[in-house]
Write a structure and sequence with these properties.
The chain is about 25% helix and about 25% strand. By secondary structure, it is of the alpha/beta class. Strand 5 and strand 6 form a beta hairpin. The longest helix has 15 residues. It starts with a strand and ends in an 11-residue tail after the last helix.
């Protein structure tokens, strides 16, 4: 049995420098719940949206989060922030270990276009191992609308999906359904941690490997430590959730290819007919 404790922090943040607030919130949760092993923040929680504060790789914001993780001896997934790499800006989620070292960086694959303009797409699927616990995968907000992303992480062995979000739009209810579906069809835990307050609708959700709701937050500030059992994931993947569908085995043993997931440069005719990806015009 491999248990692990993750605290999701659904925080009310503002546009601007939120680093002092985030440090206080992380320290507070560790003071109250010292058994927590990982703290996870929402997307863009350091500064809010907008690329004006994009930093170089391994810049001062990442270094501050590394200092926090090391001081508290925790795994830290500090949401995300914008990073400028040469001529491109990426929405980056670092993963920091209890020694304060960055073990992985996820670049958001699907920026929320056409609204998240000027942000480049990441290309690398990110998983990392926690010794004696299991394998974790990372995605970011709009990524989960594309089930190929989560399925790829599951095929790489991810048993827990860590997914920071910043959703302020009326489709948050749809995202709750997507989170549950991603957990169920990939037989994994799914942590979708959203922003609260003026920059987000809250309603973070943690799902288990059958798509069951472990916790669903309300709309305001909320801190929720969750004790997960990765042994349950392994049992579900072997036997099916409650002995029902063995989804990943069926996917592994499939006798069909998916042409739509072939060469991305070849656009399906039906999708090409939809026109360009751009802001809708007033009608």
């Amino acid at each position: 049995m491999a248990n692990f404790a993750i605290a999701g922090l659904q925080l009310e943040i503002a546009r601007g420098d939120n680093l002092a607030q985030l440090r206080t919130e992380i320290e507070s949760v560790m003071s109250r719940f010292p058994w927590v092993q990982m703290v996870m923040l929402p997307e863009l929680s350091a500064y809010g949206p907008g690329t004006a504060r994009a930093e170089p790789p391994a810049g001062p914001t990442e270094q501050e989060f590394c200092r926090i993780a090391k001081a508290l001896g925790i795994w830290l997934v500090p949401g995300s922030f914008y990073v400028r790499e040469q001529d491109s800006v990426f929405n980056v989620t670092p993963v920091i270990d209890p020694a304060g070292q960055v073990v992985a960086r996820h670049r958001k694959m699907f920026p929320f276009l056409p609204y998240e303009s000027g942000v480049a797409s990441g290309r690398d699927f990110v998983v990392f191992d926690i010794p004696q616990v299991g394998r974790f995968g990372v995605s970011n907000c709009y990524d989960m609308w594309f089930p190929e992303t989560t399925r790829t992480l599951a095929a790489m062995g991810a048993e827990v999906l860590l997914h920071p979000s910043m959703t302020t739009t009326i489709d948050r209810g749809v995202e709750l359904a997507i989170a549950r579906a991603n957990a169920a069809i990939n037989q994994c835990y799914f942590f979708d941690i959203n922003v609260a307050g003026p920059l987000g609708f809250g309603q973070s959700i943690v799902c288990g490997p059958g798509g069951e709701i472990v916790h669903e937050a309300r709309r305001g500030r909320e801190v929720f430590p969750i004790d997960i059992d990765l042994g349950l994931v392994r049992r579900v993947r072997r036997r099916g959730w409650n002995g029902i569908g063995q989804v990943l085995k069926s996917f592994r043993d499939r006798e069909v290819d998916f042409p739509v997931c072939g060469d991305r440069r070849v656009k399906p005719e039906a999708l090409s007919a939809l026109g360009p990806l751009q802001l809708p015009e007033r009608e």
